[in-house]
Specification:
The chain is α+β, with helices and mostly antiparallel strands. The protein contains 11 helices and 11 strands. The structure holds zinc ion.
Length: 247
């Protein structure tokens, strides 16, 4: 595919990243100069630095007026670094790599609507580093017909246990809930080859519930593949499944 690099550069300069059909591109600072890199190159440069997070936590506690020598806080920088290392695991992988990790697809002879409710979802908002908690994510897809090389043609599905694992890995990133549903949908599309994917997330946002107006932080976002948007019957069936499962 011919890439329009000037458009990619323009959009990266405007948004920090750009996502045309050919992949994802980010603006990265190298020697104080902005350069456009693809997702893989970006992740190689922006790696998790355990010791750096430990040191930064000590600085943060000090800046918050805390006595970092008191017993309760001595081990906190180490714990915080371990917390973020575990809960940002998904940052280490591209969506394609997550899809490959959990692909293990197999074929069935008909195309059921696959629907899965994933509970106990947690993520972190990238604006406040606050916990998004008590989450439930509903994932559905319509399998696509796949002609395997080894006579294994049929409708392609992935193991049901792989869906919550994809949701978990996408949640282990600094997220916006709108981006979370799109990431999950992209991984499901890549893992199953399906062009009809539905992802709905309901999460409580700590940064809204605990501060400011202290209003309810419960937020709902939905992603639907364009082909599913146009498939009214399947869309209605999936949305009914969500309503029934919620009640
Ligand atoms: Zn927030």
């Amino acid at each position: 595919m011919l890439l329009n690099m000037s458009l990619i550069e323009k959009m990266c300069n405007k948004l920090g990243y750009y996502r045309p059909a050919s992949g994802k591109y980010y603006l990265s600072k190298e020697n104080n100069i902005n350069v456009v890199v693809d997702e893989k190159q970006f992740k190689e440069v922006h790696k998790f630095d355990y010791n750096g997070v430990k040191q930064a936590t000590t600085m943060l506690l000090t800046a918050m007026g805390q006595d970092i020598s008191r017993p309760g806080l001595v081990e906190t920088p180490r714990r915080v670094a371990g917390y973020w290392k575990e809960l940002l695991e998904g940052e280490n992988y591209t969506n394609q790599e997550i899809a490959d990790m959990f692909r293990k697809d197999f074929q069935v002879s008909f195309d059921p609507i696959v629907f899965k409710e994933c509970k106990n979802v947690f993520s972190h908002c990238e604006h406040h580093l606050a916990l998004m908690f008590n989450g439930t994510v509903y994932v559905a897809y319509i399998p696509t017909y796949w002609n395997g090389k080894d006579n294994s043609d049929g409708y392609r599905v992935i193991g049901l246990s792989k869906i919550p694992r994809i949701v978990d890995m996408c949640s282990k990133r600094l997220q916006l809930q709108e981006k979370l549903v799109a990431d999950i949908a992209e991984c499901i599309e890549l893992a199953t080859g399906s062009t009809q994917v539905y992802v709905e997330a309901i999460l409580d946002h700590g940064c809204v519930s605990a501060r400011g107006a202290k209003s309810s932080g419960i937020t709902e976002t939905t992603y639907m593949s364009p082909a599913l948007r146009n498939n009214k019957e399947a869309r209605r069936e999936i949305q009914n499944k969500v309503i029934i499962t919620k009640s």
